[in-house]
Amino acid sequence: MERAAYHKHMAAHSIGSATVSFGLVSVPVQLFAAGESKAAISFNWLHKKDGARLKQQYVCSADGEKVERSDMIKGYEFQKGQYVTFTPDELKALEERATGAIDIVEFLPAEQVDRIWLDRTYYLGPDKGGERAYKLLAEALEKTKRVAIGQYAARGKQYLIMVRPMKGGLVMEQLRYVDEIREIAEVPIPKVEVKKPELDLAIKLIDQAATEDFQPKKYKDNVRERMMEQIERKVEGKQITEEPEEAPKARVLDLMQALRQSLESAPAEEKEKPAKRRKVAGKR
Q1: Is residue 160 over pLDDT 50?
Q2: More confident: 2 or 156
Q3: Where are the chain's structural domains?
Q4: Domain 16-35+95-180 CATH class label
Q5: Are residues 195 and 142 in contact, defined by beta-carbon separation less than 8 angstroms?
Q6: pLDDT at site 245
Q7: For residues 126 and 102, what is the distance between their CA atoms, to the nearest angstrom?
Q8: Please, are residues 141 and 165 in contact by the beta-carbon 8 Å criterion?
Q9: What does the mean pLDDT of the chain come to?
Q10: Which of 123, 125, 173 has its CA nearest to residue 148?
Q11: For residues 85 and 77, what is the distance between their CA atoms, to the nearest angstrom?
């Protein structure tokens, strides 16, 4: 019986090609996925009576008849209950406008684009004959500390994108359009005054847990691991015995008291010499 295996890193494979153009310079590139979300652990619906897998069917909402795929057509609902229909050829024609051109419009200081705009990330690699132009763009962006903003037409949509340098290579970030972003002003944030003693303690607490480098290897999805272990046990014929831990009840503490208790619960050696730790960090 097959066991669920964890994803292993394999050589990157191209998911498409495009051409980055700025001024009269064209850079043929290959697109690579920069990462992938682990698929959520999914369960299938089975028939309680005989354990057979259930399959989905499409049923007509007008006459209740079962509809086969060959009798289906796509439609766009332009008004409640009113559709305009498209044949597969018409849909293809709509999407064929995708040119694979990444047109750079402007170059901004890197810090100008907030992370809220980021939708997804791709790596760009040089395609045949584009190696020198690729390196040139990567180094020029690195030297000027700027990022390239432009648009990219693919898969029936035009994307807003940013190209930035990374370790000698190029990364393309798909951004959201302005009408896809909400303003933080829409979030109700009442006006309250921060008291200085609270702020001082909060800063102390931050200093105590401050590190200089992001170390993603320190973190893993413990919930997923526990679920996989329990699934394995069930596969091996053991019943699932462990009950999920109850989430700790949030205690409402006075803010100063919570800050003080947080500081007190830190490891002793860290509390003794925060100044020294900061100095070492500064040297790096």
Answers
A1: yes
A2: 156
A3: 16-35+95-180, 196-243+251-283
A4: mainly beta
A5: no
A6: 64
A7: 14
A8: yes
A9: 81
A10: 173
A11: 9
Relative orientation angle of helices 196-208 and 255-264, to the nearest 10 degrees:
30
Token pair for 148: 């390239």
Per-residue model confidence (pLDDT) at position 243: 57
Instruction: Convert the chain into a string of H (helix), E (strand) and C (coil).
Output: CCCCCCCCCCCCCCCEEEEEEECCEEEEEEEEECCCCCCCCCCCCECCCCCCECCCCEECCCCCCEECHHHCCEEEEEECCEEEEECHHHHHHHHCCCCCEEEEEEEEEHHHCCHHHEEEEEEEEECCCCHHHHHHHHHHHHHHCEEEEEEEEECCEEEEEEEEEECCEEEEEEECCHHHCCCHHHCCCCCCCCCHHHHHHHHHHHHHCCCCCCCHHHCCCHHHHHHHHHHHHHHCCCCCCCCCCCCCCCCCCCHHHHHHHHHHCCCHHHHHCHHHHHHHHHHC
Rounded Cα–Cα distance for residues 145 and 151 (Å): 20
pTM beyond cutoff 0.90 = no
Task: Report the alpha-carbon angle 148-169-115, nearest 5.
Answer: 50
